[in-house]
Amino acid sequence: MRVASTGGRLVVAAGDGWVDVEKASDGRFSSDPQAVYGRWDEFVDWARDEVDDSSAQQVEVFDPPVPRPRQLIAIGLNYRDHANEAKLDIPEYPVVFGKFASSLVGHGATVVLPSDGIDWEVELVVVIGREGHQIPVEKAWDHVAGLTVGQDLSWRAVQLRGPAPQFSLGKSYPGFSPLGPAVVTVDELPDKDDLAISCALNGETLQHGRTKDLIFPVAELISRLSQALTLYPGDLIYTGTPEGVGAGRNPMRFLGPGQLVSSIERVGELTINLVNGL
């Protein structure tokens, strides 16, 4: 099952189009895309039994499928090759920071580059569907609503400026957290722990990897995070990026105007349009 948001309204995939959830459910479920994660199990049961494509329509532009997460959690250095290109040790514990929700945009958005030093980071994003604290690894996937595609755009000069790094600020400028186009339930994935992940600028591949190479896989991340945090329905976890970022190249390379496409096998393709704001 795939759910998304367009025009601020929750839609679910049916056939070759999308069905408005509030209308199809006769008001049982709200049009608010964020609200559905608090009723995720009930919603999934309804959608699988009741939704058909008779009222499906085409959608071209998508909002973030999770527009107002209570917590937007991000993980750094979660692929060995990325840690190596950053010339940093392989982490013993997850490297955790936050992004701010005001940076979220959806598929098809235009993002203004505030500097010529903005880097790219394609990421698998986990959407939490059940509240949990101190979740065992073996139960972690039970707390997942689905997966989606994300970008963790990063202004490196802000992220790394002293006297202490400013990860959250450097990664939270407007449009720096593209997300979508849809949240995909894991039953659609033959192997939820091994997905091809890549991004390309104007057709040139910049990153390519597989999520099986995560140092801390999804289930372990959820369990470790939940030892400290309570995870809530609709929370987002950006799980880290594979090698190939601009700051890891010699010479360094950063984003310019064009179309940035982030892809995850069977999950989706997220496109944003970059324009200079200099």
Automatic annotation (TrEMBL):
Presence of keyword Cell membrane: no
Annotated GO molecular function terms are: isomerase activity; metal ion binding
InterPro entries per the UniProt record, alphabetical: FAH (IPR051121), Fumarylacetoacetase-like_C (IPR011234), Fumarylacetoacetase_C_sf (IPR036663)
Tell whether Metal-binding is among the UniProt keywords.
yes
Please list the coiled coil stretches: none
Q: Name one Pfam family in it.
A: FAA_hydrolase
According to the entry, every stretch annotated as the Fumarylacetoacetase-like C-terminal domain falls at 72-271
Highest taxon of the lineage: Bacteria
Biological process (GO), any one: carboxylic acid metabolic process
- Entry keywords, A to Z: Metal-binding
Task: Report the Gene3D superfamilies cross-referenced here.
Answer: Fumarylacetoacetase-like, C-terminal domain
Family, as annotated: Belongs to the FAH family.
Protein name, entry field: 2-keto-4-pentenoate hydratase/2-oxohepta-3-ene-1,7-dioic acid hydratase in catechol pathway
